[in-house]
Amino acid sequence: MKTIGFYQGCCFQGPDAHMFDTLKKVFADLGVDIKLLERTTCCGGNTIEESNRFLVYSINARNIALAEKEGLDLLVSCNTCYMVLAKTKHALDSDPELREEINKLLAEEGLEYKGTAKIWHILPYLVEEVGIDTIRERVRRPLKGWKIATYYGCHIKYPKEVAVVDSENPQGLEELIEALGAEPVKDYEGSDVCCGYHSFYTNKDIALKKVVKAPQGAKRAGAEMLVTPCPLCFKAQDIYQDMAPTEDKVPSIYLPELLAYALGYDAKQSGLAFHIIPVDKISVNASH
Amino acid sequence: MTVERAVLRVYRYNPERDEKPYYREYEVPVDKAQTLLDALFYIQENLDPTLGFRFFCRAAVCGSCAVKVNGISRLACKTPFKELVEKANGKPITVEPLNFLKPIRDLVVDHDQPFESLKKLQTWCEPKEPIPEKEYRIPPEEVKQYERPTNCILCFACYGSCEAVMDDPKYAGPYAFSRVYRYVVDSRVKEEHKREMVKNAMDVGDIWSCVQCQKCIYVCPKGVRPAEDIQNVRGIAAEYGFKDYPGVKKLQHFVDWIYATGQINRLSLPEEVYGVDPTPLINKFRERGAEVWEVPKPLPGLLEFRDLILEVMKEKKPHLDIDFHHVRRIDKRVEEVFNADVCTKITERFEEQREDFFTRFWKKLSEFFGTK
Amino acid sequence: MLEYDILIVGAGGAGLYAALWASQNPNLKVGVMTKVYPVRSHTGAAEGGINAALANVAEDSPEKHAFDTVKGSDYLADQDAVEIMTKMGPEIIYDIEHRGVPFSRLPDGRIAQRPFGGASFPRTCYAADRTGLVILHTLYDQTLKQGVEFLNEWFLLNVIHNGERVLGVTAWDIRNGGVHFIKAKAVILATGGHARMYWNRTSNALGNTGDGTAAVLRAGLPLKDMEFVQFHPTGLRKTGILITEGARGEGGYLINKDGERFMKKYAPEKMELAPRDIVARSIEREILEGRGCGEKGDYICLDLRHLGEKKLMERLPQTVEHARVYEGVDPVKEPIPIRPTAHYSMGGIDTDKYGQTEIKGLYAAGEAACISVHGANRLGGNSLLDILVFGKITAEHAAEYVVGVEHLPTEGGEYVKREEEFISSLMDKEPKEKLADLRREMGDVMASKVGIFREEKPMVEALERIRELKERAKSGLAVTDRSKRFNLNLIQTLEFLNLLDLAEVTALCAIERKESRGAHYRLDYPNRDDENYLKHSVVRRKEDGTLQHGWKEVVITKWQPQERKY
Ligand SMILES: Cc1cc2nc3c(=O)[nH]c(=O)nc-3n(C[C@H](O)[C@H](O)[C@H](O)COP(=O)(O)OP(=O)(O)OC[C@H]3O[C@@H](n4cnc5c(N)ncnc54)[C@H](O)[C@@H]3O)c2cc1C
Ligand code: SF4
Ligand code: SF4
Ligand code: FES
Fold this sequence. Notes:
The complex is a heterotrimer.
Chain A: E1 2-7, H1 17-29, E2 32-36, H2 48-51, H3 53-69, E3 74-76, H4 79-94, H5 96-107, E4 119-121, H6 122-138, E5 147-150, H7 173-179, E6 183-185, H8 204-211, H9 213-220, E7 225-228, H10 231-243, E8 252-254, H11 255-262, H12 267-270
Parallel strand pairs in A: 1-2, 1-3, 3-4, 5-6, 5-7, 7-8
Helix pairs in contact in A: 1-11, 3-4, 3-5, 4-5, 6-7
Chain B: E1 5-12, E2 22-29, H1 36-47, E3 66-69, E4 72-75, H2 81-88, E5 93-96, E6 103-105, E7 108-109, H3 112-121, H4 140-145, H5 163-167, H6 174-184, H7 191-203, H8 215-219, H9 226-239, H10 246-261, H11 269-274, H12 279-287, H13 302-315, H14 324-338, H15 341-369
Parallel strand pairs in B: 1-5
Antiparallel strand pairs in B: 1-2, 3-4, 3-5, 6-7
Helix pairs in contact in B: 6-7, 6-9, 7-9, 10-14, 13-15, 14-15
Chain C: E1 2-9, H1 13-22, E2 30-34, E3 50-51, H2 62-72, H3 79-98, E4 113-114, E5 124-125, H4 131-145, E6 149-152, E7 154-161, E8 166-173, E9 179-189, H5 211-218, E10 223-224, E11 229-236, H6 246-249, E12 253-255, H7 263-266, H8 276-288, E13 300-303, H9 308-315, H10 317-327, E14 336-345, E15 348-350, E16 362-364, E17 369-370, H11 382-403, H12 413-428, H13 435-449, H14 456-476, H15 488-512, H16 530-533, E18 535-541, E19 547-553
Parallel strand pairs in C: 1-2, 1-9, 2-6, 9-16, 15-17
Antiparallel strand pairs in C: 3-5, 4-5, 7-8, 8-9, 10-15, 10-18, 11-14, 12-13, 13-14, 18-19
Helix pairs in contact in C: 1-4, 1-11, 2-3, 3-11, 5-15, 13-14, 13-15, 14-15
The complex binds flavin-adenine dinucleotide, iron/sulfur cluster (2 copies) and FE2/S2 (inorganic) cluster.
One iron/sulfur cluster binds next to helix 6 of chain B.
C-alpha cells in the first residue's frame, strides 16, 4: 500500500463531508492509503490573493511544509487548491529570498518549506501512479452504456507553469472512463468553457451564464452526464446549474464518486445519491 | 518522421463580396516558413494574394498579428511553424480571427473597440502634485511591480480568449485591467485619479466579472499575468473602501473565516454576500440524506495558524483587514455547533492576540511620529 | 471632407509626441493619421535606451553629449541642431517621466543610465530591454487622456502643396477603402525610416517603407543624405531581426567557419565590443572573403554557449527566444547565425532645425526627417531622443504657424481623382510580375551593392538594376485584389513603389559621395575627404522624373572636424 499526504482544502465541508470519505475509500481500494494532513488549511481559494499575495504564499508554504514534515508527497483533489499550491511552490522554488522570508515565519511552528514534496493532482495521480490497468481490474460494476462527457476544469490546464495536463489537448479522463466501461464524450462544444464557480460571489449573472455552457454542449454531443476531477467545478455544475434558467439540467459527477460507483459502492456510499441534479442512471435504492 | 507540407485551413470572409464566412485550405511547404506568419506570407505570395491579415514588426513587439490557431489565441509571428505542424500530426491547422471582435476581413478584426476601452477606463498617468523639477524618485522595487504589466503589447490575444468577455459584453478585457494595475501602483499618479481608475474598472469595465480561469495568463505572449493583476486591482478596490460590491464582501468572508477557522464556510457565503438565506439549499441536501455541517470543523493547529496570519500581516499590509468583530461572532458559532473546548481557547487567545496586535500597531505608529 | 489645423502623419514616438504638444492649444484641431494603430509603430521595437545628459551616474553635460554626437556623426551633423537636441535632452526625459514612462531606476530612485556605443559617459536611460515599447505606450496613453483624434489604418498617398504652402494630403482609408483629401494648414510627416529597401536584411518592421519620404520626393522637395544607412552587426540570418548588442556585452563570441574569433584581426583590443560599424564591416569582410559559415557561407556565428543556460536565461532571455523562434536554433546548444542588418536611416526629408521644409506648413520629424542630428552615423540611443525633441519642436512651431493662417480654398476633388486613377491603373494592368520577387530582388541588389562595402562599379550597376525594377514594376506589377476593404495587396504594392523610389535616390547619392564617412564606406575611396565632401547631399525629383543631385553646407558651430577614433 502506498501512502500519500492528502490536502483537503475547504472542499469537504458543509454538505460535502461525505465526498472525502468516498475519495478515501476509492483510493484505499486502489492500493493508496490517504493520510489526511489535518493541520492543513484552506489555500485561500484564489481569493486571498486579492488582499495579500504574500499571505497566500505563507499559508500554502505551511500547507506544503506540513506534508514535508511527515515525509509525504501531497495529493490534492481540487483544481483551484492545486493551482494555488503549485503557484506557491513555483514562486518559492524560483525565489530564494521569498523562501527565506517565509521560512522565518514558519519556524515559529517548527516548520520549514524545503521544496521536497511533490504536489499531485488526483487526475494524473490516478493515471500515472495508480494506473489505468489497476483501475480496470478493480471495476465491479462496469458502467456499460453510460455516455459521459469529460470536463477537466481550468486550473489544471492554466497557467502553463502549473498545468498537469496538455493545456490544449488534455487527456486522462477519457482513458479512465473507458476503464470503467463507459463511453467518453470529448471535445464537445463548451468543453473548454469555465464552470463559472469563482464568479458566483463576484458577479452571479456571469456564473449562471457560464455554468450551463459545458453541460448543454455535452448534451448536444450525446452525453448523459459530465464527470470532473474538480470538486468546485462539480459543485458549480450541480448547484449553480440548477439555479440557472435552463430547461434541461445535465447531471455532473465528481470523479471519485464515479470511481466509487464503478468499484461497487452504492449510490449513497459513492455520494451520487446526494446530488441536487439527480443522476438518473442510478437508482438510489439499489444496493449491491 | 518529417512532414514536408502542412495544410492550413484558413477562415475567409470579405463582407464586400462573401455572404458568409467559409474556410479554405492551403498547402504550405514546412521549410518555407519559420513562423505561422511566414506561412501566411507564403500563402499570400504564392497561392492567394487576397488573404487579409495583420502584421508589422514580425518580431513579437507590435501586437498586430494575434489570431486563433486551433482554438488558441497566438501571435502568428511568434508561433514556430514546425512545432505547430508536428503537433497537428497530419491534421489541418485551423487559423481563424480572434474571438469576440468585429470581423473586418478574413483574419483581420476590429481593434478600435479594445483600444476604446482603455480610454473609458482612463488608464493613464495624471501626475501627482507637486511635479518635481527633475524626475520623481521611485525605488527600483516599485518599478518591479509594474514590470510585467508594462510588457503588454496590446495584441488582444487575451481578450480573444477571455471567459468574462464571452458572457459580458461590457467587460473591458484582461489587458485593460493589467493597465489599470500598472498605473494604480505607480506612485507618480495622483490619488484621486487612481480611485477613478479603480472605480472605472468596476463600474465601466466590470472587473468583478472575471472568472479567474487564468486563460489570459496562458495565452499572453509577453508574460503579462492579467488574472493576477485583476486580483490586485480588486484588493485595492477593497482597500479604497468600496464595500458594497459582492466581490468585496466575498473577500471579507474569506479573510475572516479563514482566520477564524482555517476554512471558508460555503454555507454562510450566500447570506454574507447576497443576503440570501441558505436554509432551503441545506434542506435539499438533508432531504437527500446527506450530513450537513453548518460550520467547518475547527482544525488542529489553528492557533499557530492564526499566529502566522497575524505575523504575515505585520510584515505585509493586506488590502483588506480582518474584521475582528466578525471573527468573534464566528468563534461563537463554532463553539455552539461543536461545543468544543478548543474554541473557547481560540476566543481567549484571539483576544490576547488582538491586544498584542493593536499594542504593536500603536507602538509602530508612535515610533513613526517620534512621540510616546 | 476632413479638415485639420494640424495633421500629423505617423504615430510612432515622433508623431505621438508631436500630437501631445500640438494639442496643448485646445482651439486647434489636431489629427493623427497612421497606417497602423499607433502602438504598432516601430518605435516600440527599440530596446536599448534613450540618451540624455542627466548626469545621474557620472558627470555629464549636454555639451559633452553634443560633442559625442557630432564626433559619432563623422562631423556631418548640423551642430546647431545637435546642440538644441542635447540641451533639451534632460527636460524631455523628465517630461516623459512625469507622464509615466517606467524607467529603470538607481537605488536612490533616480533614473538609471548605462553606457552605450560611442558615448563617453553612461548616458542612456532605459527601461530594461524595452525602452521604445514603454515610451510608445505611455505616450499613447497620454494621447487618449488628451483626447487626440486618430485616423487609424489610413495610408498617406501624397502631400499636396501649391509651391508655397501645404494644402493637405491625400490618403487611402485601409479599412473601408477609398481615397480622401484631408485638408490641413500644417502637415507634420513622422512616417519613420526606410531601411526596408534592404528587404530581408533589415531589423526594421515590414512597414518601414519611407512612405512620407517618398511622398516628399514626389512633391518635388529635397531629400538629404540618403546614402547613409546604418548597419547593425548582429541581425538574424534569415530575417534580419535584431540581436541586441547586449549579447556581445555579456561575452558572446563572433566566430567564422574556421572557428576563429576573427575580431582579433580587426580590433585586437576591443574585440567583439568594437564600435558597430567596425564590427559590421568585419563580419561582412569575413563573409565576402569566404570565411562565412554554412553551406552558402553567408553568415557568421554568434556563440553564446560558454555563457551557460542559466546566465543566458537570466540576462538574455529575448535573445534566446528570438534565436529559437526565428532561426530554430537553441543558443544554449548551438551558435546563432547572424549577419549585419540594415538598421537605421540617417537620411530623409530635408528640413531646417525647426523641422520645416521649403514649403510653408510642411514639416518632418523623427526618422523620416533629416535635420540633421545624426550626420553620417547615428549613435545608439540618440534616435529616440531625436524623435521626441523634434516631435515637440515641429509641433510647437506648427501650432504657432497655423494660428495666423486660413485654410486655402480647395475641395481637393482633383487630387482625389488623380489618386483614384492611379490606383485603378494599378488594378487594370496585366499582371506579369510578382511583388514578392521584385521586392526580394530590390533587397538583394541593395544589400550586395549598396550595402556595407561600396564601390563605384557595383553601385552603378545597382542604380541600373533599380531603374530596371522600376520599369518592370511600371509595366507588369499589378494589384490583383480588387476589394476596397483591407486590401493588403494594394498597400504592399504602394509601399514597394515607395521603396524603389528611395532605393534609387540612395544608390545615386552613394555613387556621388566619393569618400568614406560614417556608415558610408567605399572601398575605392577609403578615407574621409573633408575638403570636398563635408557637405550634405541633396536630391530632388524634377517634373520629368529625373533626379537632381546637389550639395548643402554643414552647420559647424563649435567643433572642427577631427579624425574619428575610438
Ligand atoms: C530593432 C530596433 C532597435 C532600435 N533601438 C533603438 C534604441 O535603443 N535607441 C534609439 O534611440 N533608437 C533605436 N532605434 C531607432 C528608433 O527606434 C527609431 O528610429 C525611431 O523609433 C523612429 O521613430 P519615428 O516616430 O520616427 O517612426 P516610427 O516609430 O517608425 O513610426 C512611423 C509612423 O508612421 C506611420 N506611417 C508610415 N507610413 C505611413 C503612411 N504611408 N501613412 C500613414 N502613416 C504612416 C506608421 O504607421 C507609424 O505610426 C531602433 C530601431 C530598431 C529597428
Ligand atoms: S496582456 Fe498579453 S495577451 Fe493581453 S494584450 Fe497584453 S500582451 Fe497581448
Ligand atoms: S482570468 Fe479573468 S480576465 Fe483572464 S481570461 Fe479568465 S475571465 Fe478573462
Ligand atoms: S507582427 Fe508584430 S507582433 Fe507579430
